[in-house]
Each structure stands twice: as structure tokens, then as C-alpha cells.
């Protein structure tokens, strides 16, 4: 919804799940820590939607990146995607359905805190 207003590409939960199976794609959850702990897309990384920079994103500015938050009414993912585009990333998507739409589609989730990593790039 908001991704179109911001000139961003949208992706549905089903399309994201299909793409995750066949190609590398970076999935970034910008929900609260409590929401992340409850449920997130498998393989996603949790990211602060306001306080992130290039160090938190892939080195390859052409890498496919998908941001999502809670649902269609949430603006955190579109705002984060716009920020990534302003940093020069070219292959940026928003899953506007959010984790709520992902769960409604019957797709698998993971839960629990994000494991500690030494470097976000990779």
C-alpha cells in the first residue's frame, strides 16, 4: 500500500517465499523486538527501522532486499526501504502485508531472539 506511494516495489508473501527458495534474498524485519521474538520470516534479520546504515545492509548494492513490518497500515518498512534506496540500493522491495499477512498466508515462521553476529555484512 504505502510502498506504491513512495515509488517502491512491492512483493507478496507468496512471491517472497517462492523467491527465497530459488535465489539469494535479504529479508529484513523492522518490527519491534517483541514482535520479532514472537514470529518472523525464516532467515530474516531484525533491523532497527530508523538507526541503520550501509554497515547493516549487504555490500552488494544490487542485492535483492525485502523489508517488512506488521501489516498493510505500517509505514516502518516503506520508510526503511526508502532509506536503503537513498543509500544507493537498487533492488529494494516492501512486503506490505507484513508478518501478519505472512502468517495469514499459512507460511512458516521462526520465533525467538536474533542470534548475535559479529558483522552484519555478508
Description of the molecule:
This protein has one domain: Oxidized Rhodanese, domain 1 (3-Layer(aba) Sandwich), CATH 3.40.250. The protein contains five helices and five strands; from the N terminus they run αβαβαββαβα. The chain has helices spanning 2-5, 13-22, 33-38, 76-86, 98-104; strands spanning 9-10, 26-29, 45-46, 65-68, 92-95. By secondary structure, the chain is α/β, with parallel strands linked by helices.
Keywords summarizing the entry:
single chain; 122 residues; alpha/beta; Oxidized Rhodanese, domain 1; 31% helix; disordered C terminus
Summarize this structure briefly.
This protein is α/β, with parallel strands linked by helices. The protein contains five helices and five strands; from the N terminus they run αβαβαββαβα.
Low-confidence stretches: 117-122
Radius of gyration: 13 Å
What oligomeric state is this?
Answer: single chain
Strand fraction: 5-15%
* Helical coverage, percent range: 25-40%
How many β strands by DSSP? 5
Strand order, sheet with most strands = 1-5-4-2-3
Name the CATH homologous superfamily.
Rhodanese-like domain
Given this structure, which CATH class is correct? Alpha Beta
Number of domains: 1
- Overall mean pLDDT stands at 89
Shape: globular
Total number of helices = 5
CATH architecture name: 3-Layer(aba) Sandwich
First-residue to last-residue Cα separation: 30 Å
CATH topology: Oxidized Rhodanese, domain 1
Amino acid at each position: 500500500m504505502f510502498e506504491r506511494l513512495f515509488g517502491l516495489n512491492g512483493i507478496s508473501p507468496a512471491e517472497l517465499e517462492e523467491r527465497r527458495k530459488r535465489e539469494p534474498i535479504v529479508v529484513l524485519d523492522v518490527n519491534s523486538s517483541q514482535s520479532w521474538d514472537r514470529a518472523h520470516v525464516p532467515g530474516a534479520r531484525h533491523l532497527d527501522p530508523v538507526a541503520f546504515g550501509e554497515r547493516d545492509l549487504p555490500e552488494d548494492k544490487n542485492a535483492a532486499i525485502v523489508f517488512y513490518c506488521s501489516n498493510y497500515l505500517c509505514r516502518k518498512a516503506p520508510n526503511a526501504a526508502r532509506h536503503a534506496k537513498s543509500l544507493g540500493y537498487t533492488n529494494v522491495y516492501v512486503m506490505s502485508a507484513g508478518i501478519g499477512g505472512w502468517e495469514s498466508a499459512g507460511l512458516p515462521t521462526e520465533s525467538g531472539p536474533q542470534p548475535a553476529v559479529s558483522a552484519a555484512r555478508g
